[in-house]
Write a structure and sequence with these properties.
Blueprint: H1 10-66, E1 77-78, H2 93-103, E2 122-130, H3 134-143, E3 152-159, E4 166-173, E5 180-189, H4 197-223, E6 235-236, E7 240-243, H5 245-248, E8 254-261, E9 270-278, E10 286-291, E11 294-296, H6 299-307, E12 354-357, E13 360-363, E14 366-373, E15 377-385, E16 388-403, H7 408-411, E17 414-416, E18 440-448, E19 455-477, E20 485-502, E21 505-513, E22 519-527, E23 531-533, E24 542-544, E25 549-552, E26 554-564, E27 572-584, E28 594-605, E29 612-613, E30 621-631, E31 637-644, E32 669-673, H8 697-702, E33 712-722, E34 738-746, E35 761-767, E36 770-778, H9 794-800
Parallel strand pairs: 1-12
Antiparallel strand pairs: 2-3, 2-18, 3-4, 4-5, 6-8, 7-8, 8-9, 9-10, 10-11, 12-13, 13-14, 14-15, 15-16, 16-17, 16-26, 18-19, 19-20, 20-21, 20-35, 21-22, 22-34, 23-25, 24-25, 26-33, 27-28, 27-30, 29-32, 30-31, 31-34, 32-33, 35-36
Helix pairs in contact: 4-6
């Protein structure tokens, strides 16, 4: 131990502890104060935050109190696929699955599945609902007893696998688990089949490659583009014109393929180049070439003369793809209105006043079933008013367009839209434009050659209630001398709508139900005209509408089937023929004085030939359908009147060219006895079968059967002649393009059934015929809207699912 080292006494150590404890206490105090400050600050922030929340909630509650609640959705809509579908419901996915499973097991049909089909295959072209015989259907519906008729499917099969190919139409039943099929038609020539996937795809590939290989330089110099490896300057064979044997004089399937500049919209950018293709040739041989108003026997001969400078050449620059291009539908021109203001919109303050369940609709006194036929388009069934059937079947049959032209592509352009299947052309209706945003949108399903499963298109139908803006009735008796009162009823209707876009044209098809028991069938044309390259030749059949194109005169034609049942199935058809007659004027001193007055004469039609009607302005008529045993209390038959406001005369000579395929257009209306083997008046084969039509409407009349006390069908045809003009660019507008026919009650009701409508308005003096006593008003109690209409959310819907509008 170092003696110099000092030891520290123990008591010194004990005396140092109090100083250390004080420092620790001070540190703990400081820490406590810090924590407290943080807690106070945090509590302050939380309190401020809570105050803000309280304020925001209060403001929101005040705003909610000021904002109206959402409007009621009203009546129910159930679009789910039924397990047990009604008689008229389209084929369900379960039924289609059963049909396919059954048919592919049938060895005698030798069916090829869609992924492997060729022209030489046996394959299913389409399948859709086939109704049982009407007698079985009406017996079940009207008695509401007994067993429902079995569900059936009609299947079209192309038998390209046979030594002598043919087309078969068969009926498969019972659904959903079929056990057998029967032949509906088994003798349809194979060459009558419409253009199909294997046909079109094979021909398109062959002629595109051949034209590109041989005539690329010609196309680039003449039309500014090419068919392959074209970048942004592409030409395309997109449109075809059928040249049937009736006009070609040959029993071959011949199609003219046009070339167009492929921009929006290519229909308005045709170039003067086309090829005639033999579709019955497995190699799709090119038989003729059209270039700049000249015909050549082959591509080689055209190119040879072109390169040698021996022919008249043409030069059409490829269009600039700006938004101002005349054929593109971008907003341009003088903007209006001057400020951005939303247009008026219809609303349903109390929600829907109609019910939809599957494909059945109930509205006021109306109810009906609807469906979309793949081949023929929209169809309605079992249309009832006040629970009495007025129409059993109301169905589009055909849309035809006959063009005139100098070029072969329009010269032979006689189109029958059923040949491209009308039903699948209906899809993607846009809320707020095609139909009101409050409408109910319904899908349509099809079986197509490209798929063995059901294909569903969204927004194919819409149904909505609509105030037309025109009173259904109104009368103002202002003078006490006449009896002072006012009574009126707004014309609110239910509309079932579909829009068929068949390549260039769009057709709006409406079925309109009125409160009076009247039914209107309306069709309106819009869309792009079918343009052809401008030429000074044959100026009387086409009008120049832009620098390089003209619009050619054409005739739109439409056919409807109306199976009318007035007070049962035993109906008669009569006309009230209006004429004039000279009577002696007993109040004139001249004994020879006459007065000419209008009169009508009842003309009962007894046979089908008597009931084939060709309109004559000199002999106006009322067309009436009735049951001779059902009269009103005055002894007058309770009838429905058919009034057409779309009559158009077919000017082509009967029996010439393709005219026999559309014999239904010879008559503005024809009435026939209903037969199960006369279900439709046109077919998907009409574009090619004019020499011997598969369905010849003239045969419906040729047997000239009695139509007295029979189940009757009215075949109504309408049409409009269209000479294009510059205002048809870029698309034809709807005003002036509407056609319609009506079914109107005629002595059918005791009085106007719309007298029961709660929508009517009446204003009258408090004391009868004394306006100075003040007035009382009934019917205006719903003017103050107390709810918020739903927002149109279609923009978000289509952005999330483009497949609702476009094929993906």
């Amino acid at each position: 131990m170092d003696i110099n080292q000092k030891s520290v006494p123990l008591h010194d150590t004990n005396e140092a502890k109090p100083e250390t404890n004080n420092e620790e206490k001070s540190e703990k105090y400081r820490r406590t104060i810090g924590r407290f400050r943080i807690m106070v600050l945090a509590a302050g922030i939380i309190i401020i935050f809570l105050i803000i929340i309280v304020i925001v909630v209060g403001v929101m509650k005040k705003m909610e109190q000021k904002m109206p609640p959402p409007c009621s959705s009203g009546q129910t809509v159930d679009l789910s696929e039924p397990i047990d579908p009604s008689i008229f419901h389209d084929l369900t996915s379960r039924e289609v699955e059963g049909v396919m499973e059954f048919l592919y097991e049938q060895k005698d049909l030798n069916l090829t599945r869609p992924a492997s089909i060729k022209v030489s295959s046996s394959y299913i072209f389409t399948a859709e609902l086939h109704l049982p015989d009407k007698a079985d259907v009406t017996s079940f519906l009207d008695s509401r007893s007994g067993k429902k008729p079995p569900r059936q499917a009609k299947v079209i099969i192309f038998r390209g696998d046979l030594l002598k190919p043919k087309i078969m139409e068969i009926i498969v039943t019972p659904l959903p688990y079929p056990t057998h099929y029967t032949i509906w038609k088994d003798d349809i020539p194979f060459q009558y089949r419409p253009i199909t996937g294997p046909d079109y795809g094979g021909a398109l590939m062959k002629i595109t490659q051949e034209t590109e290989l041989n005539a690329r330089k010609l196309l680039q110099e003449s039309f500014g583009g090419s068919l392959l490896f074209c970048g942004k300057k592409c030409l395309t064979y997109k449109y075809v014109t059928v040249m049937s044997s009736a006009v070609s004089g040959r029993d071959r399937r011949l199609y003219w393929f046009w070339v167009s500049q492929f921009v929006e919209f290519y229909i308005l950018h045709p170039v003067d180049f086309a090829v005639l293709v033999d579709m019955d040739d497995p190699d799709y041989s090119i038989e003729k070439v059209w270039y700049n108003e000249q015909t050549f026997v082959s591509l080689d001969s055209l190119v040879k003369e072109y390169n040698e400078g021996k022919l008249k050449k043409i030069s059409i620059p490829f269009p600039d793809l700006s938004e101002t291009l005349f054929s593109r539908l971008y907003r341009r021109g003088n903007a209006f209105p001057q400020t951005s203001q939303d247009p008026p919109i219809p609303i349903q303050p109390d929600g829907r006043r109609y019910v939809v369940k599957g494909q059945h609709v109930k509205y006021m006194n109306w109810e009906f079933d609807f469906r979309m036929s793949s081949t023929h388009g929209p169809q309605l069934y079992d249309i009832r008013y006040q629970n009495k059937r007025i129409v059993y079947e109301l169905a589009l049959q055909e849309i035809g367009v006959f063009y005139s032209g100098y070029e072969p592509t329009q010269m032979f352009a006689n189109y029958f839209d059923s040949s491209v299947l009308i039903g699948p052309q209906d899809k993607g209706l846009v809320p707020g434009v095609d139909c009101p945003s409050h409408a109910t949108f319904m899908p349509a399903s099809h079986v197509l050659e490209s798929s063995e499963k059901i294909v569903t298109f969204k927004n194919a139908f819409c149904v909505f209630e609509f105030n037309t803006g025109m009173p259904l009735r109104t009368h103002h008796s202002s003078s006490p001398f006449q009896g002072a009162f006012y009574e009126g009823l707004s014309n609110t209707v239910l509309i079932l709508r579909s829009i068929l876009s068949v390549v260039n044209y769009s057709y709006l098809l409406d079925f309109i139900f009125y409160h009076t028991g009247a039914l209107e069938v309306k069709i309106v044309s819009t869309g792009y005209i079918l343009a052809s390259p401008f030429t000074a030749n044959a100026s009387n059949i086409g009008v120049q509408v832009s620098d390089n194109i003209k619009g050619n005169i054409h005739h739109h034609m439409f056919s409807y089937k109306v199976d009318i049942d007035i007070e049962g199935l035993q109906n008669r058809y009569r006309t009230l023929d209006i004429s004039t007659k000279a009577f002696a004027n007993r109040f004139n001193p001249d004994p020879n004085a006459k007065i000419v007055q209008g009169q009508f004469v009842v003309s009962e039609k007894e046979t089908e030939s008597e009931a084939a009607y060709k309109f004559n302005f000199d002999t106006p008529k009322y067309h009436l359908f009735y049951n001779n045993l059902k009269n009103n209390k005055f002894g007058v038959p309770r009838s429905y009147r058919l009034l057409s406001r779309g009559m158009s005369k077919q000017l082509l000579p009967e029996g010439e060219g393709n005219e026999p395929a559309m014999a239904w257009m010879r008559y503005q209306m024809a009435v026939t006895k209903r037969k199960e083997n006369e279900r439709i008046c046109s077919s998907i084969y009409s574009a090619l079968d004019a020499k011997s039509p598969v369905i010849n409407f003239e045969d419906f009349l040729r047997d000239d059967e009695s139509i007295v006390d029979e189940d009757l069908v009215a075949w109504v045809s309408m049409g409009v002649q269209h000479i294009p003009h510059t205002e048809d660019l870029p698309v034809t507008h709807t005003p002036g393009m509407d056609l319609s026919f009506f079914l109107l009650p005629y002595n059918y009701f005791q009085e106007d059934p719309a007298m029961g409508s709660r929508d009517s308005v009446r204003i009258e003096p408090n004391i009868y015929n004394n306006p100075s006593s003040g007035v009382k008003v009934t019917g205006f109690d719903k003017e103050d809207l107390q709810c918020k209409p739903p927002v149109n959310e279609y923009q978000q819907v289509v952005e999330a699912d483009p497949g609702i509008l476009f094929e993906i």
